[in-house]
Design brief:
Helices cover about 30% and strands about 10% of the residues. The protein is α/β, with parallel strands linked by helices. The chain folds into 2 domains: about 45 residues; about 160 residues, Lysozyme-like (3-Layer(aba) Sandwich). The termini are far apart.
Length: about 240
């Protein structure tokens, strides 16, 4: 039988592990040696007197895709956390406008909309919402959707990337924009290895967003190329 002192020591260690896990959650560190998963795995009571983070079993392989250079342009429009859902989808959008216009719109409370990232045609990367929070880019599920994930708000279950097109669905995805999108998406996958799907906005809202992310990504082959580079599934 475990002694009272040993029980108190165990509780102290478990409390410390939970505190570390909450800190990792706040910072968006979901996998790795000092992550949410690692510290929750450490709570196994058989580790009495030796609680330590355990390396997760399902980490993604390290990628040779370079890290992105990101400018923080915070939006007030988001929900804290992900509502208890696993993040399993990455949603690609086209802006129908400029990066600067998107910056301005997402910073307005009355807009009631945001995405996690915006990517310019020249490869500029702006981040509007932290990855551990839910942006408001993906709306609601509409009739005819091809949503492959759980029921509930898609915003909780996805990370969203807007891409500049200067107001025309025919503006080509530049090499710089594709490369920046690839780098951002790879960063997202390192944070959420649970992501399995690369989605279009039209997969969620086929009536109101039928042209998003549009032929500039899909018919050009850039969308599927992005999915292949990331090892993700698409709905078509």
């Amino acid at each position: 039988m475990i002694s009272a002192e040993a029980q108190l020591n165990l509780l102290s260690e478990q409390q410390a592990a939970i505190t570390r896990a909450l800190g990792a959650m706040t910072d968006g560190r979901w996998t790795g040696e000092d992550s949410v998963e690692a510290w929750l795995l450490a709570l196994d009571p058989t580790f009495l007197g030796n609680l330590r983070p355990q390396v997760p079993a399902y980490e993604r392989e390290q990628s040779d895709i370079p890290a992105p250079q990101i400018e923080w342009v915070p939006s007030p429009n988001f929900w804290p956390g992900h509502g208890g859902f696993a993040v399993r989808g990455l949603v690609l959008h086209t802006m129908a406008g400029s990066l600067e216009g998107c910056d301005t719109w997402f910073q307005r409370t009355e807009a009631q909309v945001s995405a996690h990232f915006g990517i310019g045609l020249n490869g500029e990367i702006h981040q509007y919402v932290a990855l551990n929070n839910s942006a408001w880019a993906n709306g609601i599920l509409e009739p005819g959707n091809t949503w492959p994930l759980a029921s509930g708000s898609p915003n909780y279950q996805t990370i969203s990337i807007e891409t500049e097109d200067r107001g025309s669905g025919k503006t080509l995805v530049t090499d710089e924009q594709f490369e920046a999108t690839l780098r951002v998406a790879n960063l997202v996958l390192q944070t959420y290895p649970t992501i399995q799907w690369l989605l279009r906005h039209t997969d969620i809202s086929p009536r109101s967003r039928a042209a998003c992310c549009g032929p500039r990504w899909v018919e050009s082959g850039r969308f599927m190329r992005l999915a292949e580079r990331l090892g993700l599934r698409a709905t078509f």
